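The instructor's notes for this session suggest beginning with a concrete chain rather than abstract definitions. Hand out the sequence below and ask the class to guess, before any prediction is shown, which regions might be ordered.
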Amino acid sequence: MYNTDIPTRAELPTSAQLLRSTAIAFVAAAGILVTIVLPAEYAIDPTGVGRMLKLTEMGEIKAQLAEEAQRDRQKDSTGSIEQSNRPASDQRSSLFGSALAALLVSPAHASERLVVAQAAGRKEETVITLKPSEGVEYKLTMKAGAKVNFSWATDGGVVNYDMHGTPAGGGKEKSYKQGRGAAGDEGVLTAEGDGGHGWFWRNRGAKDVTITLKTNGAYVEIKRMI
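After discussion, reveal the predicted structure:
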């Protein structure tokens, strides 16, 4: 039975060769970091290669959408605090007014409507109208590994969007896909963990844009976050 020969000392790499290989690997990793990772993830492009490869634009979109979503969340949180500090009588009046307005608004003129049909999993259609510069975030409550078929389209305008997920216990968001000046998208959303997974849209145009979102799959509910 033949066994592989044990290499001699002369055949083993020298310390200098090992150091050279390590240096080459380090330089290659640094090059990938500077030319690909930093432009695509953080819009940092010290060499200009990222912009040539269209990676810097991807990073700019991601950074802009993340900043807008965070700004809207802070604004929404501030509004919630102010609401909680109002006298109980004012809050009751506000709730009564909201309920009355909901009864009087015609379905044809409602900015959002939800149609639910129980089929395999859950199937819904959500219609959202965004005014110029307005942003909105919708998320599906999903379990890790769950899949949802989705499609969304505008009524002719374009929007910026970020499809992402947030862990149930809090933590860093996972961005799945971003786009700028898009009129729609479709595919399968796979949850990488328990939590909320969905979309943030921003209308950067001068006219109102209506988005129709269709979802079908394994999720508990759909909620407006912003």
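Then share the key points. Residues 50 and 56 are 5 Å apart (CA to CA). Residues 55-85 form the longest helix (31 residues).
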